Design the sequence.
């Protein structure tokens, strides 16, 4: 029998999370051949790596009202990992309607309380309407979530360039073509032992080829494990020789 949920949060937050995951899965099933949008060839085709088949703007338009939330079990894992490592500064690349962000905020609130360290969740979303909806959900959650989040609206390759603290954990839940540029933007701020998580790295291996090659090149200092969640969830620990 699987463990009960590890998430400690007010009942109304837990209910909102289940509701949002449900909507997200229903949306994904509706637009994907396989039932998981990020895993499908449909997404690979659309995502802009092959612009002749679907221009990026068309893909972005399709995604404008989609949650594409990180799977619930992966959200639980990230929550556990933040608590286990005492991470207080977390960057999320790709916030969408802010579902995973709620878990990050709940965990960071706990690690800050436990360690007395400062910290925050830095979320990033380029679509203004999505950012506004995310804020609406965080407000529904209340202060416990809302006060932990610094949402940067705009292209993350710009918004993450400046004003980053030393980062304990980076969640790459972003279009695959952006994953490596995002990692390189945040890299100077990653602390020794920081964790980088990237979603759908098994099903999306083709799109992530450059990211995975970079993470796996020994000189770049990452130690990698592909966690066996649906579609793969890459966990990389940053242990460079000279940091
Ligand atoms: C997979 S979704 C994130 C899901 C979210 N982490 C969750 O679990 O609820 C990826 C999001 O990244 C956003 N995005 C795409 N390109 C971006 C960019 N250049 N800068 C910031 N956000 C971007 C998309 O609009 C989309 O909402």
Sequence:
């Amino acid at each position: 029998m699987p463990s009960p949920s590890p998430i400690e949060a007010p009942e109304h937050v837990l209910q909102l999370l289940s509701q949002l995951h449900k909507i997200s899965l229903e949306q994904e099933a509706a637009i994907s051949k396989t039932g998981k949008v990020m895993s499908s060839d449909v997404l690979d085709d659309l995502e802009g790596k092959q612009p002749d088949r679907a221009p990026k703007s068309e893909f972005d338009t399709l995604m404008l009202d989609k949650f594409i939330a990180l799977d619930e079990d992966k959200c639980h894992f990230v929550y556990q990992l933040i608590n286990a490592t005492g991470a207080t500064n977390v960057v999320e690349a790709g916030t969408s309607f802010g579902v995973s962000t709620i878990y990050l905020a709940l965990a960071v609130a706990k690690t800050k309380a436990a360690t007395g360290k400062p910290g925050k969740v830095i979320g990033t979303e380029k679509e203004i309407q999505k950012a506004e909806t995310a804020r609406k959900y965080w407000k529904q959650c209340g202060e416990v979530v809302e006060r932990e989040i610094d949402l940067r609206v705009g292209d993350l390759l710009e918004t993450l360039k400046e004003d980053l603290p030393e980062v304990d954990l980076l969640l790459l839940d972003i279009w695959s073509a952006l994953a490596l540029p995002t990692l390189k933007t945040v890299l100077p701020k990653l602390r020794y032992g920081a964790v980088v998580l990237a979603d759908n790295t098994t099903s999306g291996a083709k799109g992530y080829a450059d990211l995975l090659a970079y993470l796996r090149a020994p000189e770049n200092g990452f130690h990698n494990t592909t966690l066996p969640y649906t579609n793969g969830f890459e966990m990389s620990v940053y242990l460079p020789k000279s940091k």
User: Anything to note?
Assistant: The two ends are 42 Å apart (CA to CA). Residues 11-63 form one domain.
